[in-house]
Each structure stands twice: as structure tokens, then as C-alpha cells.
Amino acid sequence: MNFTLTPEQELFRKSAREFALKELEPIAADLDREHRVALDVLKKLGSLGYLGMTVPEEYGGIGADMLSYILVMEELSRSCASTSTAVTVQNSLCNTLLVEFGSETQKRKYLPELATGKKFGAFALTEPESGSDAAGMKTTAVPKGDSFILNGTKRFITSAGFADIFLVFALTDPSAGNRGVSCFLVERHTPGFTVGKEEDKMGIRGSSTCELFFENCRVPRENLIGELNRGFKVAMVTLDSGRIGVAAQALGIAQAALDEAIQYAKERKAFGKPLAEFQAIQFKLAEMKTKVEAARLLVYKAAWKKDHKLDYIMDASIAKLYASEIASEVADEAVQIFGGYGYIRDYKVERLYRDARITRIYEGTSEIQKLVIARELLKD
């Protein structure tokens, strides 16, 4: 593995940092406070190519490698994890799924608009009674003529409040369990499909999370993505890749918490001298830095292996597990260094602390990552 970034990758990192500082940093606290999605900023990200980074140029994307995308996710997340949440859903879940499993007609119809931010997507797998147990879903899709009739409910669907295109998983053979799942593309205004209210979340409050309802929702047969009854594989392969995006998000949150803690330790005085001069604070910062750097190497390694078409499944889970856990740890230590001020919403570390928590849950909980790692370790 080459630890030196290419000039193009450095440019992606630099441009994403500049965009984040100019467009996201000034509004991130307001988005969180107002529970508001920055759709105008997301459209700007789309026009600059950040919503179609790994989409091939022939389908309207910029055809960047996975590591370049991860660098962008890290930098955006340092300023606003809410906005980067929509970015990773668009890139890692929606675009990746269509690139990997969509028909040529589906790719040419939907990817150009997704890659440029003219339309937004959502990935609908989780249900009220099936989160980590994705195979326990209840939503059904029954064939009827040249269509499928969908009935059921999806829960905690990111970007649902403004998405135009939904990639929905449903049972097409309920007797077969996860071998009877299929994936469908459902457009927002399809009759029988309703988007529920926004969830009032602890963190990433500047992102959208809603419930979805399907009541005799008729979806054209040509909107089946991939093979019939092979949708569970579609979901799992997509999530394997998506975990690297969330790991990069967690890394960005952790780096931001470290940045804030260092700055505050230099400025804040106690007992007549800056906090940074106390060994107790120095040791905290040293441990925080070590964890952030370890997470960075794991995240970059997973992206690099995917770029080089190597088996990256275990690496993605290791990166997601470690980066998400240390994001919470580093944000917690940052709050501790700030003391009472860290508990006040006027300070960024309070938001980082809340935003970090979700990274241990979505796109596979930490417990699920451990199961994946163990399975990969023990397989023949």
C-alpha cells in the first residue's frame, strides 16, 4: 500500500476542505439547531461532482477512485456530518448499487441526475422490526401483470424527506427468507407510496430521516434492480462498500473534535497557565491523536483495497468498527477538555459528540461489524 496520495487525490482533499470551510462551517450549527437540510449546498456539491464521485463518466459522474471519495467524505464531515450523511447515501448506497447491479437502461436513466444532484436518492432496507436482522423484513412485492405490488413499512430511511428515487428491498418469495428478497426502484410520486414525518434525532439533525409506507404501491417490472430474489446480495454488497464511507465520516468527526480540543487547550487558562501546559491534558491529546491516526490508516487501507479490486470486506468492517468507536471516544474527551463549555450548544464539540454516536449504529452496528470480522476470520 502506497501511503503517498497522488496529486489528484490531494486536490480532492484540498478542494473539499475549502468547500467545507466556506459553505458548511458557517451554517452547520444552524442546520443542527433548526433540524434543516441544506438542499442548496447539496445541489452545489452535485454541480461540482461530489455526488457522483465513483460514477463512471459515461453515466454523468467523475469516475474518481474510492480513496478520493473517502478523502472528500472526511473533509466534509469535519465541518458538517449532517450534510456528509446525504453525500454518503448518494454515493455509497444509491449510486454504487445502480452502478453494480442496475441494467444499462436504469443506469442511463437515473445515474446522470443522481451524480449531478439534480435528483436525490435513498436506500430503504431497515424496517420497524428488522434493523440488524435485515433478513427479517416484512415488506412484500407481489407480481401482478407487468408490475409488482408493494406493501409494507420502512423505518429510519436517510434522505427520505427530499429524495426523488428510493431503492427499496422487499420479499418476493416470503418462504425463502433472505433468498427471497428483491430490490426495486420506486419514484417518489408513485401512487400508494407515502413518506412519513421527519424523525427528531439526537445527532445529524441537519439530515433527513423518515418512515416510508407502501400500500398497494404498483411498481413497473422494469424497475426491478438485479435478479429476482437476489436482492439480499445486492444489499449486502452495497453495504460492504458503504461502510467505508461511514468510517470516513466518523474519521472526519474525530478529527474535528481533536482540532477543537487542541485549539481550546491552547487558549483556555487555568491556574494561571494554558490548559495545554498541563501534562494531564497533553496525555489526553496524545491519545486522541493516536486513535485518529490509527483510524485514518484503517479507513484509507479499506478504500485502497477496494480500488485495487482486492477482498476488502473485512477491512471495511474493521475500519467502520474502529473509526466509529474512536469518534465517540475522541469527541467525549474533547467535551471533557472543554469542561462545562463542552456541554453548551454554543460550542462545536457538543454537536460533534452527538453526531459521532450514530456512526456506531447505521450501515451496520458495531456488533454487526464484529460478526462480519469474525466470519471472515473463520471462513475456510
Characterization of the model:
The chain is built from eleven helices and ten strands. Helix 5 runs antiparallel to helix 6 (104-115) and helix 7 runs antiparallel to helix 8. The protein is globular and about 80 Å long. Strand 9 and strand 10 (273-274) form a beta hairpin. The protein folds into three domains: 7-119, Orthogonal Bundle (Butyryl-Coa Dehydrogenase, subunit A, domain 1), CATH 1.10.540; 122-232, Butyryl-CoA Dehydrogenase, subunit A, domain 2; 239-378, Butyryl-CoA Dehydrogenase, subunit A, domain 3, CATH 1.20.140. The longest helix is centred in the middle third of the chain and has 37 residues, at 231-267. It has a four-stranded mixed sheet with strand order 1-4-5-8. The mean pLDDT is 96. 52% of the residues are buried. The chain is an alpha+beta fold and 380 residues long. 52% of the residues lie in helices and 16% in strands.
Could you say which overall geometry the principal axes of the C-alpha atoms support? globular
> Which CATH top level class of the largest domain fits?
Mainly Alpha
Backbone CA Rg:
21 Å
The helix/strand class is alpha+beta
Order of helices and strands: HHHHHHEEEEEEEEHEEHHHH
Q: Whole-number average pLDDT?
A: 96
Question: Roughly what percent helix?
Answer: 40-55%
The major pleated sheet works out as: 4 strands, mixed
- Low-pLDDT stretches are none
Whole-number total of structural domains: 3
Give the SSE map:
Blueprint: H1 7-24, H2 28-34, H3 39-47, H4 66-79, H5 81-101, H6 104-115, E1 121-124, E2 140-144, E3 147-158, E4 165-171, E5 181-187, E6 193-198, E7 209-220, E8 224-225, H7 231-267, E9 269-270, E10 273-274, H8 279-307, H9 313-338, H10 348-358, H11 366-378
Parallel strand pairs: 1-4
Antiparallel strand pairs: 2-3, 3-7, 4-5, 5-8, 6-7, 9-10
Helix pairs in contact: 1-4, 4-5, 4-7, 5-6, 5-7, 7-8, 7-9, 7-10, 8-9, 9-10, 9-11
